[in-house]
Write a structure and sequence with these properties.
Blueprint lengths: L7 H7 L5 H15 L5 E5 L5 H8 L3 E6 L2 H14 L5 E4 L11 E6 L10 H14 E12 L1 H6 L4 E5 L3 E10 L4 E12 L2 E12 L3 H11 L3 E5 L13 E7 L8
Parallel strand pairs: 1-2, 1-4, 2-3, 4-5
Antiparallel strand pairs: 5-11, 6-7, 7-8, 8-9, 10-11
Length: about 250
């Protein structure tokens, strides 16, 4: 079963600890530090649209893209409640991203890039994102670092609420550079509980190799930041943010 197929309906309830407001605040801090004023942006791998909706509420024109139809269904329901300036959602994989019009910025958050578990797909995504940006556009994303993914090996986690019970185990394969998550989800169905299983996988990208690939894709400047800071990442950083700048006057293609 593909990632986030059965988890879509339960995802928001199981991730209530994620501070989406703080994430959006940090995005705006980064953009302000660059002196960028944006008209529109793409929320790549937008999931259930929590970030998309928050950014739309702040006045941005937001396009959300995700590969999961189930997650996009939840996102569209959130957007419908917004009314004016609601985000628009499309179903596209990151490595085959193609937009009808360029945007000022692309964001890809909550270690979504790690889910590209083939390096070639990551390289293709960087190329597609660069083409999707206007000149002087900005690409901001974060990753779980190899340090964090290695530390998850053998760990078991539990998330629950009144309607859902989720237990997952992480196993890191050093040779493959992949962290596998086996996720068992139990959903309340009347007086019974329905069980489903998904396997997720994240690739342990080295920050410096990502920087090199971003330059190869056409980004002129790449910066690395520690977790929600504007300073460089520390040696044992668990999450790193990247800010890649596109410059030039080439036409959108």
């Amino acid at each position: 079963m593909s990632a986030y197929e059965t988890l879509a309906d339960a995802y928001d309830g199981l991730t209530r600890d994620v501070d989406y407001v703080a994430v959006c605040d940090y995005l705006e801090t980064v953009l302000q530090s660059l002196g960028r004023k944006l008209r529109d942006l793409l929320d790549l791998a937008c999931g259930t649209g929590s970030v998309s909706v928050l950014l739309a509420r702040r006045g941005y024109r937001v396009l959300g893209a995700d590969i999961s139809e189930d997650m996009l269904t939840v996102a569209a329901q959130k957007a419908a409640e917004l009314g004016e300036n609601a985000p628009y959602f499309i179903r596209q994989p990151m490595q085959r991203l193609r937009l009808p019009q360029p945007v000022d910025a692309v964001v890809c958050l909550l270690d979504s890039l790690n889910y590209l578990d083939e390096p070639e797909d990551c390289k293709k995504t960087f190329e597609r994102v660069c083409r999707a940006l206007r000149p002087n556009g900005v690409f901001i994303f974060d990753i779980n670092t190899p340090c964090k993914l290695r530390g998850l090996d053998g760990q078991v986690f539990l998330d629950e609420n009144e309607d859902s019970y989720c237990v997952w185990r992480a196993d890191f394969d050093e040779t493959e550079r992949r962290c596998y998550y086996g996720i068992d989800l139990f959903r309340r169905r009347g007086t019974l509980w329905e069980r489903s299983f998904e396997q997720h996988c994240e690739y342990a990208y080295a920050p410096d190799e990502l920087t090199a690939w971003l330059h190869e894709a056409g980004f002129s400047e790449v910066r690395q930041f520690g977790d929600r800071r504007l300073e460089p990442p520390r040696a044992e950083e668990q999450r790193i943010y990247f800010c890649a700048l596109k410059q030039g006057t080439e036409e959108f293609a």
